[in-house]
Amino acid sequence: MIANARMYAINDVVSAAWRRLFEWIAHQADVPLDVVAHAAPLPLGDLWLRADLGCALMCGFPWVTWPRSIERPAALVVPVPSPPAFGGQPFYWTDIVVRADSGVQSVGDLQGVRFAFTVENSQSGYQAPRHFFAERAPGNGGPVFAATVGPLHTPRRIVDAVMAKQADAGPLDAWWHALLRRHEPALAAQLRTVATTPPAPIPLVVCGAGVDHAVRERLAAAFERFEGIAELADVRDSLLLARFVRPKTTDYESLVERARAADAVGYHRLQ
């Protein structure tokens, strides 16, 4: 089967740490895993549909809104990032970032800017900011921004667009952003966070819907043992990752509720 961490493999160093983790998981679970890149612009949806999917990171919004006509990828575990801001919980949020030298100083200053986004079914890259700006949209869901820039597909391209002044602001997954500060501090220092969205359930580690239940259990149990393994201390440090825990899948319904709240005030799209 295959393994993939594209959502949080921000560069080669971090990708190598994910590979080490997956190799350890494969050995512990006695489940051979072939680590694949499935790099952008290949759609993540194609990855999540694969019958041979052993483990991959999956955004909570497409998981909870998965079409009922297709078997949904099975949830194995969820990551708990290690930075203190995450409070030792499997939650994250979206940082709204601008260039450090931007004149934008507050949420109010974002009115009329060019706002970047990843893809519409991304929680951190679209749905979280849509919910956040819905209450700030003028009457009946009117436009907040002069223009939206996207789909850009990945947080890296959000950063590129903001730095190249193709967009004035954009959303970054808080864990991805923490990894950028850890591994590319010079680039991260050129960005400034002007707002954060409310915390939400973090992306899950999933496997293919048809994977045998015994295999699922071995994989999940291996991820749970990751926290206490001394030889993986450097992996935990590189990934800013404390541990994995079993998911509370009902928590992800909150993402649907937030999307409906934005719809209810007429803010159906980021605009």
Quick take:
This protein has 271 residues and is α/β, with parallel strands linked by helices. The chain is built from ten helices and 13 strands.
Index terms:
271 residues; D-Maltodextrin-Binding Protein, domain 2; three-stranded antiparallel beta sheet; single chain; 2 domains; alpha/beta; six-stranded mixed beta sheet
How would you sum up this structure, described in words?
The strands form four sheets. A six-stranded mixed β-sheet has the order 2-1-3-12-4-13. It has a three-stranded antiparallel β-sheet with strand order 9-6-10. Strands 5-11 form a two-stranded antiparallel sheet. Helix 1 packs across helix 9 (233-239). Helix 4 links the parallel strand 7 (114-116) and strand 8. The protein folds into two domains: 2-89 and 201-250, 3-Layer(aba) Sandwich (D-Maltodextrin-Binding Protein, domain 2), CATH 3.40.190; 92-200 and 256-264, D-Maltodextrin-Binding Protein, domain 2, CATH 3.40.190.10. It is built from ten helices and 13 strands. The protein has helices at 12-29, 44-48, 60-64, 123-134, 155-163, 174-183, 185-188, 213-225, 233-239, 253-264; strands spanning 2-4, 34-35, 53-58, 74-81, 91-92, 94-99, 114-116, 147-149, 170-173, 191-196, 200-201, 204-207, 241-245. It is an alpha/beta fold and 271 residues long. The N and C termini lie far apart (40 Å).
